[in-house]
Design goal:
disordered N terminus, Ubiquitin-like (UB roll), 3-stranded mixed beta sheet, about 625 residues
Length: about 625
């Protein structure tokens, strides 16, 4: 993917806004609360001036108990009552000791020594002295079940049961705290509700604390209730679009076992489809567990949308773009997306029409595209017509199609070249594309991997009508390190055909640029032709290693990262002629809410020059 048109102005606006906020924050922080005020501006004292506290409060206790008591003792609140007499303060001392013991109990100290003493002075001082004693630890933790999860022979129920037990966060030997006890119960309950049992609940819980031995015996029983299976979808909010579209995008068939994660993914599919601006799915736990109605509430997106863009890229210079979407073309009900790009080096026009998905998620699609590519050496005009079907899943995408394509390559320098040299030709092909994404986050991954391959075969339509076959495989992986992560990338492609076959430029390979081999111009790596020209080749390899580590601010990792990378790529007409072109560089990466945005400077070892590169978003 080439650099998006909005990257530069977006980054400038973001940096200016951040600078302005930083200056404002500096100005506010720089003025201390007790800074002297010029006499002419000081407000005159009045009856609303704040009264001094009734007493001072001093806490003597080990850290971090001292901070907890200072911030949470009820005595702190009563300091603001200015007219307390000695008898009232004496009663507060008694209440304060009880309050301190309750606070210490939440931290696992059930046998503390607490003393509150009054020290005379110009203003009374209450000194809270705490000796916490032994901290209570968990001696036993039992998690039991009742309902379907306790008796079911289903392997998934057994796995869920064992997962809750193994994920218990307050096992024997751990210090007991009220917060930890509440968190452990909450985590176990969420794990129960997440799948199969939306009506699950806690039927029994007990923390039996023995202050004498500083130990706690914990017991929890979860009642799963029955297994819930999804019933029919009940859709509200549709006006422009057929409610059938909701069920086919959500992919929650009747009879499916309840799964909270699948419901979340269904909501994301609906909002990411372009047909709906928002979607909410709810399964009522009070409904029939054998066929629980699935309530889907949506807010439809506009029928038509026009997006205009102005920007600049390091590869192509200034750029104007326009994209029009019609979500329901009259007469056929398909979606039509038309894109126009005005750019000196790479203008194009494209329209793609897609059907709504069938019950299995497959869609029909047709595409037409016309494009010009000027690499300062050769000028290629290409046209493409495509028809086929595709299916996009949560992790796996599949696509098969037939395609006609034509490429006309102009040679402004009039260097003697053959059509096989430049990729001047046309072809008809049958193609299949498979892509699997196994990342921890699809917008900005930090671990996992993705793999994809393309297989195609066809017949050239000029010259001797030669058959050919094209293959491409690519892989991207992230490996976490103690400081940051490694991004590893590999790609290889090959076209198998007779030497005289006039395979079109669009089926051959060139590489280089922002998202392939940095340190080189866009598509600047190819087969070297006479007079310094670069043509496409039949074999390609690309590899990259990038170290991404967070930039720390005040010792904490920020959303910005520093990158160091080495890229290499090669293109040739024969495997034995592959010669790597290497680029090395460094950059800054921002993990923005919409995906990574990176600016880098790279040096091409063979090009012997530095180049600036921008990229935005994550696509695999």
């Amino acid at each position: 993917m080439r650099s998006p048109a909005i990257v530069l102005p977006f980054m400038i606006r973001t940096l200016l806004a951040a600078a302005g906020l930083a200056l404002l924050a500096t100005a506010v922080v720089a003025q201390p609360a007790d800074a002297p005020v010029p006499p002419g501006l000081a407000p005159a004292p009045g009856p609303e001036a704040k009264a001094p506290p009734a007493f001072d409060l001093v806490v003597r206790a080990p850290d971090p108990l001292k901070e907890i008591l200072e911030n949470n003792l009820e005595l702190r609140r009563y300091r603001e009552v200015s007219d307390l007499d000695d008898a009232e303060i004496a009663r507060l001392v008694v209440l304060g000791e009880k309050d301190a013991r309750e606070l210490l109990a939440t931290q696992g100290y059930f046998d503390p020594q607490v003393r509150i003493a009054r020290e005379p002075g110009a203003r009374t001082t209450l000194v809270v002295t705490v000796e916490p004693g032994r901290r209570t630890t968990v001696s036993e933790a039992r998690v039991e079940f009742e309902g379907d999860i306790a008796t079911s022979a289903d392997p998934e129920a057994a796995a869920q049961r064992e997962g809750i037990r193994s994920g218990w966060s307050l096992p024997a030997g751990q210090p007991f705290t009220q917060t930890g006890w509440d968190r452990a119960k909450s985590v176990a309950t969420r794990a129960l509700l997440a799948r199969r049992y939306p009506a699950g609940r806690i039927s029994y819980s007990l923390a039996d604390v023995d202050a004498a031995t500083a130990s706690a015996r914990l017991g929890l029983r979860l009642d799963s209730g029955p297994v819930y299976r999804l019933g029919a979808l009940q859709v509200t909010g549709t006006q422009r679009y057929d409610p059938l579209l909701v069920s086919r995008l959500a992919r929650l068939p009747e009879g499916t076992v309840y799964d909270q994660e699948q419901i979340v993914q269904a909501q994301l599919r609906l909002t990411g489809s372009g047909y709906f601006d928002s979607a909410f799915i709810y399964v009522d736990p009070e409904s029939d567990p054998n066929a629980a109605p699935v309530q889907v509430t949506v807010r439809e997106a506009p029928l038509q949308k026009l997006v205009l863009g102005v920007g600049f890229t390091t590869d192509g210079g200034p750029r104007l773009t326009a994209e029009h979407t019609h979500n329901r073309v009259p007469g056929i009900g398909w979606r039509a997306v038309t894109k126009l790009q005005a750019e000196k080096k790479n203008p194009y026009a494209q329209t793609e029409w897609t059907d709504i998905p069938d019950e299995d998620g497959w869609r029909w699609s047709v595409l037409a595209r016309g494009e010009k590519l000027d690499d300062d050496r050769l000028v290629t005009h290409s046209q493409r017509l495509r028809a086929g079907r595709f299916k996009n899943g949560d992790r796996i995408d599949r696509n098969w199609y037939v395609q006609y394509e034509r490429a006309r390559v102009q040679n402004p320098r009039n260097v003697p070249l053959t059509s096989a040299d430049t990729g001047d030709g046309s072809a008809f092909t049958v193609n299949y594309i498979w892509t699997g994404r196994y990342f921890d986050n699809v917008q900005s991954p930090t671990s996992g991997y993705g793999i994809g391959f393309e297989l195609g075969g066809g017949l050239t339509l000029e010259g001797n009508n030669q058959p050919f076959q094209r293959s491409l495989v690519r892989w991207l992986g992230y490996r976490p390190l103690s400081s940051g992560r490694l991004e590893l990338r590999a790609e290889a492609g090959a076209v198998f055909a007779k030497p005289q076959a006039e395979v079109p430029f669009t089926q051959l390979f060139r590489t280089g640029g922002d998202t392939s081999v940095r340190g080189y111009k866009y598509l600047d790596i190819g087969v070297e032709l006479p007079d310094g020209l670069i043509g496409p080749g039949r074999y390609m390899t690309v590899g990259s290693v990038e170290w991404q580590r967070p930039i720390r601010v005040r010792g904490q990792p920020s959303a910005f990262e520093h990158t160091l990378f080495v890229d290499a790529g090669a293109v040739a007409d024969k495997p034995s002629e592959l010669r790597a072109r290497v680029g090395v560089g460094t950059g800054v990466r921002w993990r923005s809410p919409v995906g990574p945005i990176e600016a880098a400077i790279a040096y091409g070892l063979e090009a012997k020059r530095f180049r600036l590169h921008f990229s935005a978003g994550f696509v695999f």
